[in-house]
Design brief:
The protein has 458 residues and is an alpha/beta fold. It is globular. The N and C termini lie far apart (69 Å).
Length: 458
Amino acid sequence: MSKYDIIVLGSGPGGYVTAIRASQLGFKTAIIEKESLGGVCLNWGCIPTKALLKSAQVFDYLNHAEDYGLTVTGADKDFTKVIERSRGVADGMSKGVQFLMKKNKIDVIEGFGKLKPGKKVDVDGKEYSADHIIVATGARSRALPNLPQDGKKVIGYREAMTLEKQPKSMIVVGSGAIGVEFAHFYNAMGTDVTLVEFLPTLVPLEDDDVSKQFERSFKKAGIKVMTNSSVEKVDTSGKMVKATVKTKKGEEIIEAEIVLSAVGIATNIEGIGLEDVGIVTDKGKVMVNDWYQTNIPGYYAIGDITPGPALAHVASAEGITCVEKIAGMHVEAIDYGNIPGCTYATPEIASVGMTEKQAKEAGYELKIGKFPFSASGKASAAGTKDGFVKVIFDAKYGEWLGCHMIGAGVTDMIAEAVLGRKLETTGHEVLKTIHPHPTMSEAVMEAVADAYGEVIHL
């Protein structure tokens, strides 16, 4: 039986980052993976979806070349090649993780790992042991009882990335990040898209102003939006899928070639031996403390299977925190109130901290600033004037409570707010930080100036 200091179960952005940091700290490390290195994020999620969205953006540019004084004739798409490019990007990233495993002298054990008592893992009949076992098995597309996925007419995100031919029509159920990104991609490619959301607004976790702007942008792009609606059942017996949608006005039946279920995720905790070891779970999540220790010494859990936000960058940060604590380093617990969230549709959305509603409910007196990209020179030059930056400050002490952005490139801008909040920056410090001109990032400074009654360009 092979013995290690640390074994990591799962090689997604939580698992492989954890393994690398463990190796850097001098631990003899192994990682167990049943499929492809990089997990869902690299192979079926974060990375390949961005490749698809880039193809959609380029196609959109070609179709609107005249807006930029250019003439493009015969702009067309090859859907198969778009999919192939996305898969190629994913394969390249997975190979990159393979290289990092070799570089850091991490043993890669292929197969399905199952936890056993006594700090052991069984991988397809072969046992391995470690002083510390970190579970990072991630999550998958959640299936609803009234929306069973058959992989052909009712699909999840995996099938949505590898369809052999582009559907003429699609119903997307759920308007979280996964749902709206695919809705945007297929709409931009020319598919007739209907987006169904159970709650009153699209991207319901975002600030209300962002949700309203996003819905306007989606409708303007030709996507049919149905909020306060739910798919009650689907009939897949015919050539088209018939979806019965319950709305405030009653039930209506809509038809499409494909229904994409994007109603969240389910954790991968079944069959991995948690019960055999005695590890406590609650509502599909593994219970852990601030250092990701489970109730059983020597067993840890990070990423989507724990109660924090199911985001790749969160899983990576949790894994690093976990192994640094194991190594005896002085580490701070992660501040889950300062986690950025990003949605990569068009327009992009990025946010961190409290929404206006949350800040008011918490009892803060607020200073709120907003700067529209329509007043940005860079946005005007780029032809991307939709959207805005919104900032929320505590009026009493100047604490930066929240930042919410919608528009082109905002997912690359949000880190300023995350860092500012980490360093406990006040509004006036942001205001007096000189931002380069012309850039989209100036909108952050201008929004702060608006909050304090000093805005120049409005």
